[in-house]
Amino acid sequence: MNIYEKIKILEPSFTSSEKKVADFLCFNKKDTPFLTIYNVAKSTGVSTATVTRFAKKMGCRNFSELKIFFAKQSSGSLHEIFSAIEPKDTDEEIVKKVFHGNKKSLEDTLHITDISKLTTLARKIVTAKRLICIGIGGSGNVAQDAALRFSHLDLQSEAYTDYYHILIQMLRADVNTVVIGISHSGRSTITVEGLKMAREQNATTVGISNYYNSPLARVSDYFFCTSFPETGVKVAALSSRIAQLCLIDAIYLLVAKYKKKLWDVSKLNDLTNKLLRKK
After folding, report:
1. Contact by Cβ (8 Å): 191, 139
2. Are 4 and 231 in contact (CB under 8 A)?
3. Under 8 Å CB-to-CB from 54, ≥6 apart: which residues?
4. Which of 164, 168, 204, 213 could tie 13 with a disulfide, CB 3.0–4.6 Å?
5. What percent of the chain has pLDDT over 90?
6. What is the mean pLDDT of residues 44-72?
7. What pLDDT digit, counting tens, does each position of 122-141 carry?
8. Same structural domain for residues 149 and 255?
9. Burial class (CB in 10 A: 0-12, 13-18, 19+), 279
10. Domain of 165: which CATH number?
11. Pairing, β 157-160 against β 204-209
């Protein structure tokens, strides 16, 4: 996974001292492979132990291993692809940044996804009597799309995207319910509160967010993190929703695999075609 992406995802979990180390290394990314642990400690005003702790939090055994990751990713142009869209960009540059950004987001999301958890969740959904998807704003659109997909598998699948309906339905959740909460930030109050209420009702809770250490993650029995570079292509049309939909597609197909009896979707297609011909 891209080192800069991982720093962004883990940032909420950093102490103030670790944040100084992260900022320093990212700002001096080209020089980082040549720095010693003492250089970094002195430049940031922290202890060498803090630098080592930061390296381990990044998944490395020590600072030397962390430098290797920086060296590999500072030598190429991958990180430069994610420079923010500027007014001076050509049409071609804008289009390429959009596609490159989403492509990289999907690749990095796959790298950090625990396939075994997806499989376990899929089996849980197969045996559930009710599947509820919740989200607000853009995440609400993803929730509605998810509910429709699972309905094609003849599951009792519903989506709720406003405060009142979410609260009411969470009170009706029980041990036979699976609730999927979607929030890019992982901080949407009603989505977090909804999953918390569902968990108190003994429902199985699932969170999808762009941040590991988010409130949504803490109320989720199953949590899946997307990887969209916040420091990258900054445009309202882009978010982690492409990766969110990809995760949902993966769960959907796994459920289809493990569900013993599937709905005959061809009947729906025939009915749709008849209605269209009448128009």
Report:
1. yes
2. yes
3. 14, 18, 21, 22, 66
4. 213
5. 51
6. 88
7. 999 999 999 999 999 989 99
8. yes
9. exposed
10. 3.40.50.10490
11. unpaired
Could you tell me which residue, 118 or 65, shows the higher pLDDT? 118
Residue 242 DSSP SS3 = helix
Confirm if 17 and 50 have CB atoms less than 8 A apart.
yes
If one counts the domains in the chain, the total is 2
Say how far residue 120 (Cα) sits from the centre of its chain.
18
Structure tokens at 223: 């949590």
- Beta-strand relationship, 177-182 and 204-209: parallel
Whether 105 is covered by a domain: the verdict is: no
Nearest to 6 by CA among 249, 241, 185, 213: 213
72/116 same-domain check? no
Residue after which a domain boundary falls, among 51, 76, 101: 76
Write down the pTM of the prediction: 0.69
Joined together, the tokens standing for residue 131 give 């599947």
Angle at 76 between CA 74 and CA 82, to 5 degrees: 85
